[in-house]
Amino acid sequence: MHGTFDGKDAVKRTLPELTQEETLRYSRHLILPEVGLEGQKKLKAARVLLVGAGGLGSPLGLYLAAAGVGRIGLVEFDTVDLTNLQRQVIHGTKDVGRSKLQSAKERIHDVNPNVEVVGYETRLTSENALDIVRDYDLVVDGTDNFATRYLVNDACVLLGKPNVYGSIFRFEGQASVFATADGPCYRCLYPEPPPPGMVPSCAEGGVLGVLPGLVGLIQATETLKLLLGIGESLAGRLLLVDALGMKFRNVKLQRDPKCPACGTRELKALIDYQQFCSVRGREPEPEKIAELTPAEVAAKQARGEDFDLLDVREPHEWQIARLPGARLMPLATLGATLSQLDPNREIVVHCKLGGRSAKAVRQLQAAGFRRVWNMAGGIARWSQEVDSKVPRY
Amino acid sequence: MAATVNLPSVLARLAADQKSVQAAGSTLGEVVSDLTRRYPELGPRLRDEKGQPYPYVIFYVNDEDVRFQGGFQAPIRDGDEVVVVPAIAGG
Fold first, then answer.
1. Which of A202, A259, A262, A277 is catalytic?
2. Mean pLDDT of A178-192
């Protein structure tokens, strides 16, 4: 039997009974009149899809399982990396290198063996999204990129499933509930994504480890409220979280009558979201720039070639790790420091992953430098392919 | 007319590290122009080359979405509070 969602009383299917063990386990819920036996049975009957078992997905998975959500679907294709553990608390040190899906599944079963975990070890795509989402009462968006966020939103709008949204960057976060019966959707808030490269990823920009805990648990709270049909949902509001100021602010969201997804409904099927989030004719694809691999740069150094190795990262990154012979000139102030460079010398530019250095190469070329190379993959790739003693971060 | 403009930290960096800035103007567009004049690096993050808002940087005046109040033509009164919300995708 399938549940329907009217935004008020989420789960409408024959409610299962609680076992004796469950009655004891959920006793602190059962004695809340707003939850009670009926509410706990609704949670047991509920089906929630988590897209992503990363920063946001970690607290979501743990707490929704602990709360007794009966079926949790998990979409995740990645493996656990040591750099994840600073915030992705569903995974442990022993899990490094393992599939995130397997690791999360085990942890959830340890928290609450009554929960059925359905794993989807794949990327969510335009081809599989509707089939996966269809089986759930609501979707929680814990993804880390714009393309998947638009995909999750559109699938939710098309299928009439609420989309519990959260996103984070550095010390700040956002949360809302989209695609309820009358509420706005993600596209009403952001009709178009920023051009690629404009907003740095958490890998480049960093994120305070507790922040996804904070925002993920706001999403978990909204999820439980929707399933139980209690409280005032964040639908129609965007919650802005500022961890440094420890300020929470609500701004109003409205359904946009011109929204192609939930307004005019001209969007009738899922689209190509990689293309939607790439250049889309707004600006021409930047010209390819000349690249060298870290191994090629190391070989140039070993041959004693005369060139400048420019590091355009920030000073606090320079303190973590640096390359032999490199010279620090942060991208943010490159315009002012350019005159210190000799335009006739050969220059190789690097950063952490290769994105900022590509911008610096273009800036140098525009300033008349002719012999400029980008080091592909940055210091991270140097650490993997040339010298593992250079710390990875 | 002067409004208080609240910036997320990623934009505050471009406004002498101020998360809250006073700016003058009788419309939101004028407030943005005032900020752009004083903090030239901030300008391109708030509006495009034609001076229009981006679809991924949303402005709120007194917590109302300005797209439903005339966009950059939205009137500003003394003491109004503007919040700038750029799209972020981390998770």
1. A202
2. 97
Q: Is A52 on the interface with B (CB under 8 A)?
A: yes
Terminal-residue alpha carbon distance, chain A = 48
Residue-wise pLDDT tens digits, A270-303: 999 999 998 654 444 556 789 999 999 999 999 9
C-alpha distance from B42 to closest chain A C-alpha (Å): 13
CB within 8 Å: A174 and B60: no
Average pLDDT, chain A: 93
Least Cα distance to A180 among A255, A260, A257, A264 occurs for A255
* Structural domains of chain B ordered from first start: 2-86 (3.10.20.30)
ipTM for this model? 0.96
> Which CATH number fits the domain that encloses residue A305?
3.40.250.10
Q: What pLDDT score does A6 carry?
A: 45
- The residue from A276, A307, A341 where one domain ends is A276
Verdict on whether the full-model pTM lies above 0.90: no
Contacts of A52 in chain B (CB under 8 A): 91
Compute CA distances A47 → A4, A72, A253, A362, whole Å: 11, 6, 27, 49
The domain that contains A35 carries what CATH number? 3.40.50.720
Which residue range(s) make up the domain with A97? 20-276
Q: Mean per-residue pLDDT for A14-23?
A: 96
Interface test with A, best of B58, B59, B88 (most A CBs within 10 A): B88
Task: Provide the domain count of chain A.
Answer: 2
CA–CA gap between residue A223 and residue A175 (Å, rounded): 12
> Do residue A228 and residue A349 come from a single domain?
no
